[in-house]
Amino acid sequence: MRLDRTATPVTVVPSPHHGGLGITRTLGRLGIEVFNVDGERWCPAFFSRYCKGRLVHDLDAATERESVEALVALARRIGARSILVPTTDGAARLIADSAEALRRHFIFPPQPPELIRALLSKKEMLELARRHGILAPAAVFPQNRAELLEAPDHLGLPLIVKGVRGDTWARTSRSKVLVRSRAQFRALCDLLPDAVVAELMVQEYIAGKEDTVWMFNGYFDARSNCRAAFTGRKLRQCPAYAGVASLAAAEKNPAVEDAAEMFMKSVGYCGIADIDFRYDARDGRYKILDVNPRVGSTFRLFVSEDGMDVVRAMYLDLTGQDIPASPQRAGRKWMVEDLDVAAAWGYARENSLGFIDWLKSLQGVDELSFFAWDDPVPVALMLLADLRELCSRSRLRARRIPPFYPKSPAAPARKPPAYEHSRN
User: What was the pLDDT predicted at 233?
Assistant: First the structure.
C-alpha cells in the first residue's frame, strides 16, 4: 500500500522485543520517520534501518514526571508533533494520565484515563465486560492467604494465577502461571509473599487445544467506530498454554469480531485494541480473557489484502487520511523466532509436541518477527537479548524468586536519558 502523506513522524514508547520492531518496520517501509524509546540500550528496534532516532529511557524505573519530561525533550529534538504509540500497559497509562502535558507535543487518540485504568485492571475489566453482556471465565480476587487457598474449591482445576495489574510486577517475573493440581497450587502459594496476595487474580482455565485461543486486533476512531478489524488463533504460546503468541494464524471469526467491537463501542474506546478470547466447548461461547488498550505485539499477524494493519490504520486516521476498506488476508501465519523455540520446548516437556511436528508447523509462515531481508541487523540483537535473559533467569532460579513479586520503588534518574539520531 501507499500513503498520500507521510510527513508526520511517529514515536514508539517503549520498543520492546519484537513489538516495537514491527511498528518501526511497518511504518518505516512507507517512508515515515520512526523514533524509538526504550530502557534497553541494545533494543533490537534501535538498530533497525527504519529507526530514525532513539531515546534510552526506562519508563518502569522512572517516575511519571521524569518520563513526561524525557518524552517532551525528545519531541523538541524531533522538531514536530509526532504520533505517540504505546506498546505496554505502563505506557498506555502514562499517556492517558499525562495527556494534557503530552498533547502539545504529540498526537494520540483521546482516551479517558479512568477507562484506560479500568481496562488495564483485570478485575475492573471483567466487571465492565459482564456489565455489557460479554462472557468471561469465572474468577476470584483473594484479599488474604486464606481466600487464596480456597480458590480451587470455588473454581476447580486447572487454574490460571496472574496479577490484577500485569505491569505492577517486575519484568523478570511471569505474568501468569498455569496450575494443574492442588499440590502445584499449594507449592505456588508457599512461594508467594503475603504482600502480593491481594494483587492476584485466580481464574478458571478453560480446557481446550491451543486453537481455541483467539485474538482480536482493531482500530477504533474518535467515535468508537471500528475502522479496521482482524481475528486469528494462537497456535502456540510462550510459556506453553499460558503466555503470549509465538506462532499464530489469521482466520476470520465473526463471533469474536462482533463481541470485541460491541464491547469497545459500548465503553466509548478509541485507539488500537488487542483482545484475547477463548472458546468454551462446554457452552459453545467465546469468553474474554484480556483487553490491552494499546497495540499488541502480535499486530503484524493481522494484515489486509492491501497491506493494512492496525498501526497503519491509526496513522491514516490521525493524519486525516481515509482508511480504505480491505478484507483480512486469511491463512497468514506469523512467528516470533526465539519465543517459539522456547514454546516448543515447553510443549515437548508436556509430551504434546514432537520435533517433526514442530518443523511441520513452521511451513507456510509468512512473516518472522526479527529476521527480514531488508533489515537484517535486529535479529543479532535478538540473540544478544536472549543470552542476557538466559543468564538472568539462571540467577533467579538460584535465588528461588517467586513467580510474582512487586517491583522496587522507582529510583530518581541519576543522569539524563541518552538520545541519538540514527545513522541509517
Answer: 94
pLDDT digits (tens, 9 = 90+) for 240-263: 887 889 999 999 999 999 999 999
Q: What is the pLDDT of residues 151-184, one digit of tens each?
A: 999 999 999 998 888 655 544 445 688 888 999 9
In the predicted model, what is the mean pLDDT of residues 120-139?
94
**296 pLDDT higher than 90:** yes
Q: CA–CA separation, 2 vs 29, rounded Å?
A: 10
| Alpha-carbon distances, residue 151 vs 158, 186, 197, 199, 200 (angstroms) | 11, 11, 12, 14, 11
Note the residue count of the chain: 424
- Considering the domain architecture, whether residues 231 and 308 belong to the same structural domain is answered as yes
User: For residue 222, is it within any domain?
Assistant: yes
**CATH number of the domain within which 48 lies:** 3.40.50.720
Report if pTM > 0.85. Answer: yes
Are residues 398 and 254 part of one domain? no
Q: Tell me which residue range forms the domain holding 23.
A: 1-108
CA dist 197 and 200 (Å) reads 5
| 115 assigned to some structural domain | no
Q: Do 346 and 221 fall within a single domain?
A: yes
3-class SS at 262? Answer: helix
Residue 76 φ then ψ, to 5° = -65, -35
